[in-house]
Specification:
heterodimer, A: 409 residues, alpha/beta, Rossmann fold, 2 domains, six-stranded mixed beta sheet, 13 helices, B: 310 residues, mainly alpha, 2 strands
Amino acid sequence: MKKSRRFLVAFTLFVAAATLAASQTGAQRAAQEPIKIGFIAPLSGPYAQNGRDILNGLLLYLEQVGYRAGGRSIELLVEDDEAIPAVGLTKARKLVERDKVHVMAGALLSSTGYALAPYIDSMRIPMVYPVVSADDLTQRRRSQWIVRTGYSGSQPNHAFGEYAARSLKLRRVATIALDYAFGWESVGGFQRTFEAEGGTIAQKIWCPVSVHDFAPYLAQVSRDVDAVYALFLGRAALQFMRQYREFGLKQRVLLIGAGTTTDEHVLPFMGDEALGVITALHYSAALDTPANKTFVAAYRARHKKVPSYYSESMYTGAIWLVAAIELARGRVEDSATLLDALRRVKAVDPPRGPVELDDYGNPIENVYIRKVERVNGELQNTVIATFPNVSQFWKYNPAEYLKQPLYSR
Amino acid sequence: MAERKKTVACLVLVVLLIAVPPFLSSYWVGLLTQMTIFAILAMSLDILLGYTGLPSLGHAGFFGVAAYTVAILSTVHHASFWTCVVSGIVVGTLLSAALGLVVSHVRDVYFLMITLALGMVLWGLSYRWIPVTGGDNGIAGIPRLEAHAGLPVTGPIPLYYVTLLVFIACTVVLALLVSSPFGFSLRGIRENESRMKSLGFNTWLHCYLSYVIAGAFASVAGVAWAYYNGFVGPTYLDLTASSEVFLMVTLGGPGTLIGPALGAGAIVLLKNVISAYTHRWLLILGTVYIVTILAAPQGLWNLARSRRRA
């Protein structure tokens, strides 16, 4: 008797699932139904803060345009990928196959970016990657349906390597970075141009992504280096800065690094230990341009904090997306037209300065050298130098560049 | 009588699994595919955990290694479909045969610790052996099963039926295995190893074989997963993945085969469906676990069975 009841439950579940699915496939989209944008980012787990910043940037711009583009309203569907590629892929399947989104945006980690790319290509859904910085997404493993509006990991670091050698007059540098693709590509880019200018990377120290205590790593830092190049983000960045000072290294050795180390997603939580740190990125919230000032003011008013580069990246990604929808006159059902529009978008004035896609689908944009200063009681990344229109290939020939392997440990 | 009902229930379930998917959207077919793959994995761990009483916390390692084998062979070496499938299963099985030599000498919490450590080693390998595994970035671009096997059809349906077929085959083989004399001696070892020893059984060999068999079926699931997912990365063989399989087995009911399969289905469903409605879904999943442990320490399937007896 019990058996048949259990069985009945199972059967009912199946029928329920079937009806649910059928009602979704049956719903045909009318021309004036809303444009569905699917969004994926880590909203829980260790990268939740970064993911939240990305979402905030998107919300701000969509509110500014009143959730309308190309004469249609916009519906936003948000999913959390927990910073796990497998979950990201499952959520992408849900958004594309069940919710039938017209266009996708988001993703934070390189691994998630790589995991999504083949699926996105196979489903022929245009997707904007505002943050994912894995070099090969626009280099050796290009994807047809993905448009990157952020940057590639080595891009700002090529400029920074040259700056470190020529302007900062550094000769010997030790690097200490998180041990994953983003770390390898950033350090690799820095090393290439820095050594081309006659500098030497004296040592490379790698910390696991889950690092909690930097003492064993800081103890390895060589005595005779001019500077330490650090790449961290989130909680690790805060902890590193504090321990760098506690170890007495701050007074002795200049600290430089990748943009995320002092990015605005962690900067407000830092103290004097961050002062004077020099980093490179394609954005700074302290950038002194009208477009950026308007953006920062609006963002502060809406979200009660300073925008990080993650926020700006998705804000610009949203500008891009809305402009493309306008260009396609709202015909988002035609994915090929929308993708074409995404690749052709030009007339935008994003907070970070002029942006243009190169032939490989990566933005050509300014790289800013920033120094942490205290202004009006608040830490900020003051821009001290600008490299205009930097390409992902720096000054190298793209074909030659692509023959070389991807930066690794 | 009960036995006949059980057979009928299984048959109807199989008929449903065969008949319903063509009427579902591709999303639900994908979910069902995922469920069947994890059901195979959970059943393979059940041989070890439920029947032999050896709690392994590194079981996702074989799953992952098989998936990586398929990924590397199909993307870097452009190997044929059958080469990939056979190599995936063979590599996973050989690995379990090698590691089994180490782990089959210990029991209980020591077994847990050693399998955990070996699982971490495999994870570390996938994360650090960058030239081969791509490290953190994983390997993407595994061809779709129907394209790779040269089938004249496309879409999620063929892959689903292939995994369903594999699932049914695995279930039949495993069911035969656990009802064979070998299966009964495994249960004997679980209940009282020293008595089995004194009866003249080579318990070490039994445990070793049980570990290898579990590893082999986990590899089958890994191969299917590589084709379903199109991507492999280190997260598939880390501790979280292993403990998730562990939970599928304990939730469904260890030592029943069908229980872990249903547990796998339930967890995949919970993860995907609830998370679509609330970001607090982990809280719900946690509550489900706690309630199961308190109310049905032997798993949901065993709860139903013991009640029926009473």
